[in-house]
TrEMBL record:
InterPro entries, per the entry: RCC1-like_dom, RCC1/BLIP-II, RCC2, Reg_chr_condens, Zinc_finger_PHD-type_CS, Znf_FYVE_PHD, Znf_PHD, Znf_PHD-finger
Organism: Coprinellus micaceus
Basic residues biased stretches: 540-556
The protein's name in its UniProt record: RCC1/BLIP-II
GO MF terms, alphabetically ordered: small GTPase binding; zinc ion binding
GO CC annotation terms, alphabetical: membrane
Domain PHD-type, chain residue ranges per copy: 443-491
Start-end of Acidic residues biased regions: 523-534
Region (Disordered): 507-556
Alphabetical list of SMART domains matching this protein: PHD
């Protein structure tokens, strides 16, 4: 969430909540691969590319408070007002905590409660982070859980191919249990932040991602290079006495901001993504000099990490980027931004919220009337993840107003590799947007009297036509705002939509079994590090082959 809060029109004491809009790819197993978005085969479901923001019907009757994903990921976590998590997308390495399914449709998301994971009654999920193939959840009791790829300990468990069900990750410091409030995740590591502003990391140290000053690089059997793996959260000592309030991670780097607005960066530094003026990996958190003060207005207010870039918005709302964030010209691989530079096209915008997806960049800024305006750009966006409209280009080189979102108050964005979610306050403009899925096979007549006549009221979620007088109790007039039919209310919030998804069996939750305690050869593990969305790794720099393995270097 942005530090500069958006105007909140809700009058109750409820936390700010909204409804989910979705655009971009929904063909979860194929995203980022050839043939994505071509639709289903035979009787299978259609998983289209959505070229404009669509109302996500399945979660339309759930009050969502935050949405989470990764710029390198194809899965999402939405947290609702009751502290339940809703998960959907690609289930790579069982990162959704379920087994035997390749993906979970956005039309039939999984609901997870902290009590399902053994948390005490009353515990809520308060934060979540997604890596490429793993997920970290945070509870209101300060607990952390991880599921998914654990080849390098990124789920906080003894190294194994995957943690197939959410498993608790104890975070302790000097023998005391720490209360975690936020999480961030890269491809091969995770970061957690405690209520006192301490930062802990776990996973692979190969490029300094753990911020503990070492990669542990060494030659192992077969002349291969190995690096340290920390399977238990370790304290980032360099940030001692700083009260960190925000953490964000790209696939292999992290930004953290303290309560005064000083920004720290560490990890992989290809294309100068850390904005420190060089390409040397930072093995420990380093202060970004431009935002170190003393003038408070030039210090950080919001931070964001992209696949090969970083964003800092200062307290005046000025927007700065470092690294590679486009494909040609200044800011591309040939001439990345080696330090944080402002973007000319949006100089006049006061940035309240910034996000980066696979190839997309997003910001929310007040328009001339003070209404939040959503601005986006991204070269080579191919699945509709910019959501600019059916007849508009899918890709945009320069910052562009998202016209379909005009008049809609967006207050959170989760920008994934090929898909974007928005959290928006429902209003009349919102209700005019298309709904996903488009066709949910509603009954042809009123479900109560079975008559196809008169002027029935249509359910906002499932399109079923109900006569006002057939409802119990009957309604005298069309209700203002959203309306959900008795069937959708009975099915419970977040129930599946569409005949296909309603009939589908619910996926089974996985249960993690720790691997036997034997040393495995290093190359037994699939190396998550060498992923397509961060393909600069391993080509421009030394090949990261053969990392991993259970053998840990003894520290002197
Ligand atoms: Zn009727
Ligand atoms: Zn309905």
């Amino acid at each position: 969430m942005a530090t500069a809060a958006l105007p909140d029109s809700t009058t109750s004491k409820d936390p700010q909540w909204g409804r989910i809009l979705i655009c971009g790819g929904t063909d979860w197993p194929k995203l980022g691969k050839k043939g994505a978005g071509k639709g289903g085969e035979g009787d299978g479901p259609i998983n289209p590319d959505l070229l404009e923001p669509n109302i996500l019907r399945s979660l339309l009757n759930v009050k969502i408070t935050s949405v989470h994903t990764s710029c390198a990921g194809c899965h999402f976590v939405a947290i609702d007002i009751d502290g339940q998590a809703w998960l959907f997308g690609r289930n790579g390495s069982s990162c959704l905590g379920v087994v035997d399914v390749e993906y979970v449709s956005e039309n039939a998301p999984i609901r997870l409660k902290p009590t399902d994971l053994g948390a005490p009654a009353g515990t809520k999920f308060v934060h979540a982070a997604c890596g490429r193939n793993h997920t970290i959840l945070v509870g209101s009791d300060g607990s952390v859980w991880g599921a998914g790829a654990n080849t390098l300990g990124q789920c906080g468990q003894t190294v194994c191919p995957e943690v197939s069900g959410f498993k608790n990750v104890p975070v302790t410091h000097q023998g005391n249990r720490e209360r975690v409030v936020k999480a961030a995740a890269g491809t091969t590591f995770s970061v957690v932040l405690t209520d006192t502003g301490k930062v802990f990391t776990f996973g692979s140290a190969a490029n300094g991602q753990l911020g503990n000053g070492t990669t542990g690089e060494r030659i192992v059997t077969g002349n291969k290079t190995a690096y340290d793996i920390e399977t238990k959260p370790i304290y980032v000592k360099e940030l001692h006495e700083k009260k960190i309030v925000k953490i964000v991670s790209g696939p292999q780097h992290t930004l953290a901001m303290d309560d005064t607005g000083v920004v720290y960066v560490w990890g992989y530094n290809g294309y100068c993504r850390l904005g420190l003026g060089d390409q040397k990996d930072a093995l420990k958190p380093k202060v970004v000099p431009q935002f170190a003060g003393p003038n408070p207005s030039t210090m950080g207010a919001d931070i964001c990490a992209g696949p090969s870039s970083s964003i800092i918005a200062d307290k005046q709302g000025m927007f700065y980027m470092a690294g590679k964030w486009k494909n040609s010209g200044d800011g591309s691989s040939g001439s990345p931004y080696s330090t944080f530079r402002f973007i000319q096209d949006i100089m006049g915008c006061k940035v309240m919220h910034a996000r980066s997806g696979g190839v997309t960049h997003w910001l929310i800024t007040p328009d001339d009337d003070g209404m939040p305006m959503t601005v986006c750009w991204g070269q080579n966006a191919a699945n509709g993840e910019l959501g600019l409209g059916l007849d508009e280009p899918k890709s945009a080189t320069k910052p562009t107003r998202n016209v379909p979102l005009q008049g809609i108050e967006v207050f959170d964005i989760a920008a994934g590799q090929n898909t974007t979610l928005f959290l928006a306050k429902p209003n009349d403009k919102f209700s005019e947007l298309p709904r996903h899925p488009e066709d949910v096979q509603p009954p042809g007549a009123c479900p109560k009297c079975r008559k196809d006549e008169g002027d029935p009221l249509e359910c906002d979620k499932c399109d079923s036509p109900w006569h006002l007088h057939c409802l119990s109790p009957p309604l005298a007039e069309i209700p203002a705002g959203e309306w959900f039919c008795p069937t959708c209310v009975a099915a419970g919030p977040g129930s599946a939509v569409g005949t296909y998804w309603k009939k589908l069996k619910k996926p089974k939750f996985g249960v993690h079994k720790p691997p036997p305690q034997v040393a495995q050869p290093a190359d037994d593990y699939d190396d998550d590090f060498d992923d397509s969305s961060d393909s600069d790794v391993g080509t421009k720099r030394k090949a990261p082959a053969g990392r991993g393995g259970a053998a840990k270097k003894k520290r002197s």
